[in-house]
Design a protein that fits this description.
With about 375 residues, the protein is mainly α. Helices cover about 55% and strands about 0% of the residues.
């Protein structure tokens, strides 16, 4: 690609300069990699610090949805850290560095996008099911869609790189998200999807779909919608040769690659891992359970939650049992009649231990819990 020599002497915009500026000439560590690495490392330390409690909670629930979310969170954090470390270790120059760096970025984007779509699709279409089969179906579908997106992005990035992200040095090309036209179209598409999700509770589909009722779910959707909208605006500005658009692209990219996974964790998992005496319970769903379905008993109370996945997507402050029925999320006619065989079900000792404070969990053993029963 021919480069206009008159532009080579022009100073780079600071928001483009930060993408390849190196902190140390000896180790060639880029500032951009450090910006992505530090928040991911801090969140990884948080996960390690909370691992003992999370492990006991997951063992107690035996629920595939909680385990799936937790594995996705850990996998995405590790992949982001791995990409940063590998990029920092690339000390040689040439086109190989560009190819390796692009593949790493696209791989991280693949995992993040798969997780992003899985959370939304499971909440809208499969939130009323809590089975391994439904989770496998969701992950398979979202992985296929994310793979198509990532392959398109990688092809555009390697075969037709965006000149807005080019460096005026031989053999160097900063990752440009597949080009600003691709970034604009994809960001606008995701923005419209999230806008439609926010409008679903006010449409006729609210009666056909088991829509999530937790406000945190819609806050999560709203954050992603505005993030994609900002990405689209930044890409559009760059397409119109407004150099300040690269600042908006950088900010939204940094937020996505550093704070999306913590947002996912604190929206859907923190309440479950952090609560000491949850006022919720789970009952068996006779109409939707399959051979892979799992459910948790509770020793004192019941709510309108029918499966473990409802704890993630549904409001957990529902009413109690009234005349053999459970008050629905909206109350009134939205009551669910059911038998309660779990009243006589023994309590899992690991579940009882997982409800205790973190101090009391330390030193816990299964044998001691069985002896106390």
């Amino acid at each position: 690609m021919a480069v206009d020599n008159s532009t080579q002497d022009q100073p780079e915009h600071v928001c483009k300069f930060i993408l390849y500026q190196e902190m140390f000439d000896t180790f060639r560590v880029r500032v951009w990699d450090v910006v992505i690495l530090i928040p991911n490392l801090l969140f990884l330390f948080y996960l390690v610090f909370r691992f003992n409690r999370a492990r006991l909670k997951l063992r107690a629930t035996s629920s595939p949805i909680f385990l799936t979310f937790y594995v996705l969170v850990c996998l995405n954090v590790l992949m982001s850290i791995f990409r940063c470390l590998v990029s920092m270790s690339l000390t040689y120059s040439g086109f190989v560095v560009t190819y390796v760096d692009t593949i790493l970025w696209v791989t991280v984007r693949f995992f993040l996008l798969s997780t992003e779509m899985s959370v939304v699709i499971f909440g809208l279409a499969f939130g009323h099911l809590d089975s391994r089969s439904s989770i496998r179906h969701v992950l398979t579908a979202t992985s296929g869609l994310s793979l198509a997106f990532s392959l398109t992005q990688a092809s555009l990035e390697l075969l037709n790189p965006d000149p807005s992200f080019g460096r005026w040095f031989p053999g160097h090309q900063v990752f440009g998200h597949g080009g600003m036209l691709f970034w604009l179209v994809s960001s606008m598409l995701f923005t419209l999807v999230y806008l439609c999700i926010l409008c679903l509770p006010w449409t006729r589909f609210r009666d056909r779909l088991a829509l999530p009722t937790k406000p945190s779910f819609y806050v999560y959707i709203c954050v992603l919608m505005f993030l994609n909208l900002a990405q689209a605006i930044g890409a559009m500005l760059l397409l119109r040769s407004v150099l300040e658009g690269i600042c908006l692209v950088d900010i939204t990219a940094a937020l996505y690659f550093t704070f999306f996974v913590p947002l996912l964790y604190f929206t859907f998992l923190r309440e479950f891992f952090g609560v000491s005496q949850p006022g919720i319970s789970f009952s068996y769903n006779e109409h939707q359970a399959d051979e892979d379905s799992v459910s948790l008993p509770h020793q004192q109370s019941f709510s309108s939650l029918k499966t473990d996945s409802d704890f993630i997507y549904q409001h957990t402050s529902g009413g109690g049992i009234v005349g053999g029925s459970v008050g629905g999320v909206g109350g009134g006619d939205n009551t669910t009649h059911f038998h309660h065989p779990v009243l006589s079900t023994p309590i899992n000792p690991l579940y009882t231990a997982s409800l205790q404070s973190p101090d009391s969990i330390t030193g816990y053993s299964l044998g001691s819990a069985l002896e106390n029963r």
